[in-house]
Structure formats: structure tokens, C-alpha cells
């Protein structure tokens, strides 16, 4: 399964990517939102994992674009270091399926990913 991982923190992006690859996923990783969005426009992904705050284009903008311009129901998980409740509510309002606060637990992320992928393949 093809995953898009957009995260500007190099250590987190590389460690999550490595973990997901060991779990059998094919991961395309991006350090900025602009490159991630270009990839989303050109390749099919099973799920999108994105940080909110990134250079170029934010994870919120990516989510909004996928939902309103591409009209795609691809599962999207947003993570952020913001602990502001409104940020989480805004993420769901624009179409995110999950919101995970940082630090991200790879094991928790994997469980949530599998649940969303399973749910989307049932539809």
C-alpha cells in the first residue's frame, strides 16, 4: 500500500517512514507541503499522513484541497504539536479522518491507519 507522509521534522519523518516500511508499506516522504500536494495530484495513495505546520503549504491546506478540489475520500491523518482543541476541531471540519497529537506513537499511528484503510476499502 502506498502512503504519503508529509512532515517537516526530519527525524520524525524518517523514523515514521522506516517504521512503516518495516510494516510492509511503500512510503513517499516529503518535508514540505507543496511537494506533497504535487505528488497527491499525480499518484494514487492509500492514505495521507500530514503534519499541520509545514513550509509551503500546510497540512490543513492539503486536506482541504484533497476534499474540495480532488473530491477524494482518501483517508487523511493529521498530526501536530499544537494542543489547541480548536485546531483539532478545525481538522475534522475540513475533512481529516484522524488527528494525532505529537509526539506520534508509531504503534498507535499504525492501528489508526489500518482501521481507516480497512474502513475505506469496505466502501
From TrEMBL:
The keyword Metal-binding does not apply. The keyword Cytoplasm does not apply. Transmembrane segments: none annotated. Keywords: Phosphoprotein. PROSITE patterns: RESPONSE_REGULATORY. This is Transcriptional regulator. The modification 4-aspartylphosphate is found at residue 51. One of its GO terms (biological process) is phosphorelay signal transduction system. It comes from Anditalea andensis. Residues 2-117 form the Response regulatory domain.
Amino acid at each position: 500500500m502506498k502512503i504519503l507522509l508529509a512532515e517537516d521534522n526530519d527525524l520524525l519523518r524518517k523514523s515514521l517512514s522506516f517504521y512503516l516500511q518495516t510494516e510492509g508499506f511503500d512510503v513517499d516522504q516529503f518535508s514540505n507541503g507543496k511537494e506533497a500536494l504535487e505528488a497527491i495530484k499525480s499518484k494514487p495513495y492509500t492514505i495521507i499522513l500530514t503534519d499541520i505546520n509545514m513550509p509551503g503549504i500546510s497540512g490543513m491546506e492539503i486536506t482541504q484541497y484533497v476534499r474540495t478540489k480532488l473530491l477524494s475520500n482518501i483517508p487523511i491523518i493529521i498530526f501536530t504539536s499544537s494542543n489547541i482543541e480548536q485546531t483539532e476541531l478545525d481538522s475534522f471540519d475540513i475533512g481529516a479522518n484522524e488527528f494525532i497529537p505529537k509526539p506520534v506513537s508509531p504503534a498507535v499511528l499504525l492501528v489508526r491507519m489500518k482501521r481507516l484503510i480497512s474502513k475505506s476499502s469496505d466502501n
